[in-house]
Design a protein that fits this description.
Blueprint: H1 2-18, E1 27-38, E2 43-53, E3 60-72, E4 77-88, E5 99-114, E6 117-131, E7 138-151, E8 156-166, E9 175-187, E10 190-200, E11 206-219
Parallel strand pairs: 1-11
Antiparallel strand pairs: 1-2, 2-3, 3-4, 4-5, 5-6, 6-7, 7-8, 8-9, 9-10, 10-11
């Protein structure tokens, strides 16, 4: 009887190990919902929600909420301050204690044209305050994104970007996120985007993700120009 129980235990351990899911083998999904609300000629408010799934439509990974204040120095130069909160599940295979994060972000964006190619630069500094089940670590992260957008016609556009993310406290290897996708304008203030994200993490994981986003704008200025 003891030998039988031992054999069954070994088979269960072997089966569990074999059934482990590798995040690199899954085509996960990132969902985004973003909005911009103009409150004056120089100021606007952003809201943003992001949901990551390890698999195409299943297996929770990450949820982020952000609220931001933008000051528009010019139509091409904007400074932003964000407050964010996130919930992160770092294990694709089993239920484990989540990591919660409060985040303060300073950001500068700049747009210009190189010859006839439109370019946008985004530089972010993030101050991250984590709450794990047994600790409360802190970290700062530096992010730089270079992107471009091409209009195919009035309704359809192509978006391409590449972003580097570096967290010196945890790793000296930067994370890289490459994105390409199609956008569809429903109006001057509403669009959706469907694209592909290749994420190379600082731990050398190579992740493939479908990204689906919806974005809209509102204008609360009393005297619109």
């Amino acid at each position: 009887m003891k030998k039988l129980l031992l054999l069954l235990s070994l088979l269960m351990v072997f089966n569990f190990s074999y059934a482990q899911i590798n995040p690199e083998d899954k085509l996960g999904t990132w969902y985004e919902l973003g909005s911009n609300h103009k409150i004056s000629d120089k100021a606007s408010i952003d809201t943003y929600t992001q949901l990551w799934l390890y698999e195409l439509n299943d297996n929770f990974n990450f949820l982020l909420f952000k609220l931001g204040y933008n000051y528009h120095f010019t139509p091409k130069l904007t400074a932003t301050m964000y407050l964010g909160y996130s919930d992160f599940d770092g294990n694709i295979n089993m239920s484990s204690p989540h990591t919660y994060e409060s985040r303060i972000t300073e950001q500068i964006t700049f747009k210009h044209k190189l010859s006839k190619i439109p370019l946008d630069h985004r530089l972010r500094v993030e101050h991250r305050f984590f709450r794990k089940h047994n600790s409360k670590p802190k970290a700062a992260r530096l992010r730089y994104r270079l992107g471009t957008k091409f209009d195919l016609n009035k309704s359809v556009f192509v978006r391409i970007s590449n972003e580097l993310l570096l967290t010196p406290k945890f790793s000296n290897t930067p994370e890289n996120r490459f994105y390409t996708g199609l956008g569809f304008n429903f109006s001057k203030s509403q669009n959706i985007q469907l694209g592909y994200m290749n994420r190379n993490t600082s731990s050398k994981a190579n992740l493939h993700r479908i990204q689906v986003g919806m974005f809209f704008k509102t204008d609360f200025r009393k005297n619109k120009s």
